[in-house]
Amino acid sequence: MKKQIAVLFVAAVVMFPLPGQPAQQPQASNTAPLPADAASKEQLKKLFEVIGIQKQMQSMITSIASSKEMMPFPGELSEKQKDEMSTLQAELFAKIMSPQFIDNYLDMMVSAYQRHFTKSDVDQIIAFYSSAAGQKFVNEQPTLLQEIFPKVLPMMQQHMRDVMKETNYEDRLKAILSESGKPEGKPK
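Above: the chain's sequence. Below: its structure in token form.
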């Protein structure tokens, strides 16, 4: 269960909205034509640079990788084992969130943003994030994340355990995955 909690949390963190990202809405078709006044790829890349998405992702990776709480394992670990686990975890997250992955992620964000933001919208957002207040907001994000993450992680882990217990998750998962719970192969 602890490994499931860690995996679910990592997935949530990777998908965590960054400043400047809209709240999740129902997905528009990825094949729908872009609006005529859609922001250009260049505009959006500038926006991502101004709001520091890559810097924020790197800060998030650093916070996750440095948290000894992230990947709990059964039993007590010695200090040496904890240090080795921390090193392994840091290496794992560095490879998972490689520069190539981040570039691919940003490329995928461009097309989504183009469906939701006009050229004018992006110009106004860039103007704000280029201002002193906007840059302070951007520059404080890594510090805020590093301050908040160690406090939020244990809370989220406990909440996940509570919800999983409340919903009888483990027993229900076992039932779903058991032989008797498998479909018979006949279409219904």
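The chain has a mean pLDDT of 77.
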